[in-house]
Description:
- Keywords: Membrane, Transmembrane, Transmembrane helix.
- This protein is an all-alpha fold and 267 residues long.
- The chain has helices at 7-27, 35-60, 67-83, 89-111, 124-159, 162-165, 172-200, 210-233, 237-266.
- The chain starts with 6 loop residues before the first helix and ends with a helix.
Amino acid sequence: MTFAMYTPLVGISILAYVLSAFILSARLGDPNRMRRRALILSLVALVTHVAALIGVFTETSFVKVNLFISLTIITFILSFLNTIRGDHPASLLIRPAIYGLAALSLVTVLLVPAEVGRPIYMTPIFALHMSLALIASAILTLATFYGVQLLYVNRLLKQRSAKAVSHRIPPLMSIEQYFFRLLTTGTIVLLLAMIVGFIYLEDLFARGQLHKTIFSIMALLAFGGIVIIHYWRGLRGRIAVYLTLLASSLLILGYFGSRFVRDIIIS
């Protein structure tokens, strides 16, 4: 069965995400504007998003989890984590972009059959490893969003007076604190995913997995280094964000790069 058979659910989710993103963009200037409408659309988008994923998992018996389905799982986790933050200014500022990314991921999965990609022998240990890896990717991606927001707000404050823009931007310190909190949590989850993989999986260094494993280790070391230096030497600001962007690039190359080659080019 292709994901296209879930067109109604996917279509509703895409529409709800897009409408919610537009409303949230309008709310940046007035936080109380259409608040209930944005909340309802967000809930509809999340519910239909996860319902569509459950449907495709049920039909494929977890044998096919290709690149696009993985991306859709990550964007759901991203959207969920951001939505439960409620009306926190820092979360509201990046929510339209996150919802836009979620809608785009659903479009790509809708266009590509679930059968695309190589089958996966889904053991409980591999399911645990994959789940931890996807959760870590989502948390670290969210941290990257906050890092970019940190650069944006910092630049905004330098270009204009803080008094002129304070009514519509979140406090710089709260963004930075949450950024490092997400970075630390995501790094720990990624470390757990790698430990599970090294202990229980035998093919991490197989020919088709070697570059993925190497890039993932490099990303883990980069994220871990940022976190350690932050708490040990007080690393923060632009340098921390730039290093996070570099580490995220390594993670993307390791996971999505290898999956693109395996699921799209080779298959």
